[in-house]
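Below is how a single chain appears once it has passed through the pipeline. First comes the sequence as given, then the structure the pipeline wrote out for it. We keep one example in the README because the format questions we get most often are answered faster by looking than by reading.
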Amino acid sequence: MTQTAKPADRPLSPHVFIYRWPLASLLSITHRITGIGLTIGTLLLTSWIVSATHGGDSYAAFTAFIGSPFGYFLLLGFSLALFYHLCNGIRHLFWDAGMNFEIAQTNSGNWLVLSGTVVLTAAAWLLALM
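Resulting structure:
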């Protein structure tokens, strides 16, 4: 008869809420979330086109909705998601080419994605509001 080994008294792996995630993993998760958000946000674009085909009253109602503070909030979120997904997608193209896998390069790429998102979103809103 064989004896079973007693489990070692060792610490368990850190819980997901205690473990500090690297920025690259957070950006990867956010990339997936923004992809879903962009898919849902495309319904906003579709609603705009459909309202234009249904006549002036429908289009005026949609324009009033999108011109409200909540509408601007939706547009800001959509543009942030769009530019973030674009910048992070470009970074993934570099990764697909086998580049920027060193930790220092990945960290600088993380910050380039975030800063590029902010700069492109601010530029788009400044040009749109002029």
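The chain has one domain: 23-129.

See the next section for the split statistics.
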